[in-house]
Amino acid sequence: MGRFSTAFIVAKDDPTIRVEFQIFxxxxxxxxxxEYNSYPVVGRSEPYRVxxxxxxxxxxxxxxxxxxxxxxxxxxPIVVPIFVxxxxxxxxxxxxxxxxxxxxxxPPLVYFVVGSYIMEQCIVRSVVVxxxxxxxxxxDVPIIPGLPVELGAALSPYYGLVSLQLEVVNNxxxxxxxxxxxxFGFLNNALGSMGSNL
Length: 198
Prior knowledge:
Layout: E1 4-11, E2 14-21, E3 28-31, E4 34-39, E5 48-54, E6 58-66, E7 68-73, E8 77-82, H1 84-93, E9 98-100, E10 103-105, E11 110-114, E12 118-130, E13 137-142, H2 149-152, E14 153-157, E15 159-168, H3 176-179, H4 186-191, H5 194-197
Antiparallel strand pairs: 1-2, 1-11, 3-6, 4-5, 6-15, 7-8, 9-10, 11-12, 12-15, 13-14
């Protein structure tokens, strides 16, 4: 599959911080669970169950990224390199706190979008990066002027696998009526003003 530009992760408060899927993941795991307290009852073959709470919905998947280029029209066609290392750094950054005025603030919220199927506001729970043994490492750009290339250049991977776990954060906790048979009414709750930010 070619570049899947309708699938991406973007920072909620800064739409310029955006990572698009190059290739759709082999597996996309969507998980949601409910917790019940069980109370044994004399003479019953099973306990009496009382609903406690539901756990947040999560998305777990692995994205492959390869060194590539993008052709953009702004206003004339230009070739923009897409570095695996930069992509990894952007995704990793979503797990770091923000420091504003010396105070720590939670990592930024992101929007996770896959066409019209998934449109969720999320936190990034984990980012695990793997560079398989067969990954080609190349020399990209000299970073120390005046030194020989082998000493002053940046060594960069041309391939990487990034495993992500995203956890949905709704502005208001949705119920059965919002997410069940009646459709995707929860999208407005989750996304809020997303449309104006992308």
